[in-house]
């Protein structure tokens, strides 16, 4: 029996590679002679670098960046084994995880650090980039990233505007004459799993601003400032980004990557499964196992289990999802190719208890083993 194990991470608990290996351990207890292919997967958010570095025989690079609050800190990105492709998680440099809950302020947080990761990769000779833009702490339209790459965002006195979405109100014109010339020879693919436009009731500020510390008044200000930014981009670059699907991703980072770096915005799971050659591996498999931290009705919007299941469905392969928990209307995933789904939780517990890595790993092993045992019993009955 050939089994492909292609899970996402259990956020804040287990990495995708930990999950894949633990599922294999559980299944091997019942099917020790099965052929297992482990493919940790991500959708552009947390875990993307780890999954891609694993798949591309690459390595991690650590460097110093400017964090969302303007302080110096360390961050990482991945490089493929042939040093041709850099894999960057925006969250590593400009993510919510870098900002304490009581300091989250979408008006001042900057994406400058993400630009510094790109710059560092350029210095190392990389010319192909895959950038995951999930989990950002920013609402600056990617302005900080652009400034780190040499773009001048100028106010009425000819000076660079400050950091954050609040400062976009001061923007008068854009000067790209000193933008790093190496960027013109680069290829950017952006793992973007939302279709929100830059502005409006479904835009970056209204939908994602609250989780970044924006009040109702802040949302209005930030949305107006992104409208203003789009207006100046159209004025100086002759590109209209305001209503393009995906430009509202990551506080407007999608708009900056599209307008200034000619990036292609694509579903993260699509980019990653292509690089992993998942289609070929699934076609040859007898069973596919996937998973994520929580499976619910929102999972159909570009999450890993649905992306994996879509490939399996094309080849008429059964898919089992082993997940941290099952949420509201999880049954909506069945028509998308999920054959069966299981939560690893064994008892009522707090969120902290559920996320404990040791406990989660134990529960995952037991769940995988029991699922494998059930499959074996079923084959004997049949």
Describe the structure.
This is Glycerate kinase. Keywords: Kinase, Transferase. GO terms for molecular function: kinase activity. Belongs to the glycerate kinase type-1 family. Pfam families: Gly_kinase. The protein is α/β, with parallel strands linked by helices. It folds into 2 domains: 2-41 and 276-381, Glycerate kinase, domain 1 (Rossmann fold), CATH 3.40.50.10350; 48-268, Glycerate kinase, domain 2. Helices cover 36% and strands 17% of the residues. The protein contains 13 helices and 15 strands. The protein has helices spanning 16-28, 48-55, 90-94, 112-123, 143-148, 204-208, 216-237, 249-261, 268-275, 278-283, 304-314, 351-355, 357-381; strands spanning 2-5, 35-38, 59-66, 72-79, 85-89, 128-132, 152-154, 173-175, 187-191, 264-266, 287-290, 294-295, 319-323, 325-326, 340-343. It has a 6-stranded mixed beta sheet, with helices on both faces. The chain has a 5-stranded parallel beta sheet with strand order 2-1-11-13-15, with helices on both faces. A two-stranded antiparallel sheet has the order 7-8. The longest helix has 25 residues, at 357-381.
- Share of residues in strands: 15-25%
Number of helices: 13
CATH class of the largest domain: Alpha Beta
Overall structural class, as computed from helix and strand content, comes to alpha/beta
Instruction: Give the strand tally.
Output: 15
Q: What is the CATH superfamily classification of the largest domain? A: Glycerate kinase, domain 2
CATH-assigned fold name of the largest domain: Glycerate kinase, domain 2
C-alpha end-to-end distance: 17 Å
Low-confidence segments, ≥5 residues, pLDDT <50?
none
Order of neighbouring strands in the sheet with most strands: 3-4-5-6-9-10
Order of helices and strands: EHEHEEEHHEHEEEHHHEHHEEHEEEHH
Protein name: Glycerate kinase
InterPro entries: Glyc_kinase_flavodox-like_fold, Glycerate_kinase, Glycerate_kinase_RE-like, Glycerate_kinase_sf
Keywords: Kinase, Transferase
Pfam family, one: Gly_kinase
């Amino acid at each position: 029996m050939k089994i492909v194990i292609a899970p996402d991470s259990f956020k804040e608990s287990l990495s995708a590679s930990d999950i894949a290996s633990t599922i294999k351990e559980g299944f091997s207890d019942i099917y020790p002679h099965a052929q297992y292919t482990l493919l940790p997967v991500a959708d552009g958010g947390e875990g993307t670098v780890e999954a891609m570095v694993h798949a591309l025989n690459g390595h991690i690079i650590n460097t110093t960046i400017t964090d969302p609050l303007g302080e110096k800190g360390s961050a990482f990105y991945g490089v493929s084994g042939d040093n041709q492709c850099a894999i960057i998680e925006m969250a590593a440099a400009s993510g919510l995880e870098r900002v304490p809950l009581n300091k989250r302020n979408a008006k001042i947080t900057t994406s400058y650090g993400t630009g510094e990761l790109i710059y560092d990769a350029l210095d190392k000779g990389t010319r192909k980039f895959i950038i995951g833009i999930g989990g950002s702490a920013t609402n600056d339209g990617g302005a900080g990233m652009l400034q780190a790459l040499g773009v001048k965002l100028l106010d009425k006195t000819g000076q660079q505007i400050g950091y954050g979405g609040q400062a976009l109100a001061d923007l008068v014109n854009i000067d790209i004459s000193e933008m790093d010339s190496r960027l013109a020879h680069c290829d950017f693919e952006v793992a973007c799993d939302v279709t929100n436009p830059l502005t409006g009731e479904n835009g970056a500020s209204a939908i994602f601003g609250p989780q970044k510390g924006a009040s109702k008044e802040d949302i209005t200000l930030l949305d107006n400032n992104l409208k203003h930014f789009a207006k100046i981009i159209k004025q100086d670059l002759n590109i209209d980004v305001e209503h393009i699907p995906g430009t509202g991703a990551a506080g407007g980072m999608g708009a900056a990557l599209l307008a200034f770096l000619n990036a292609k915005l694509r579903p993260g799971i699509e980019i990653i499964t292509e690089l992993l050659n998942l289609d070929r591996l699934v076609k040859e498999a007898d069973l596919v196992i996937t998973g994520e931290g929580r499976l619910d009705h929102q999972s159909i919007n570009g999450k890993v289990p649905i992306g994996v299941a879509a490939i399996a469905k094309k080849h008429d392969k059964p898919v089992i999802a082993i997940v941290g928990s099952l949420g509201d209307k999880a049954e909506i995933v069945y028509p998308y190719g999920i054959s069966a789904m299981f939560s690893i939780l064994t008892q009522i517990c707090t969120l902290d208890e559920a996320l404990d890595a040791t406990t989660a790993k134990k529960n995952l092993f037991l769940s995988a083993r029991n699922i494998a045992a059930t499959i074996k019993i079923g084959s004997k009955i049949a």
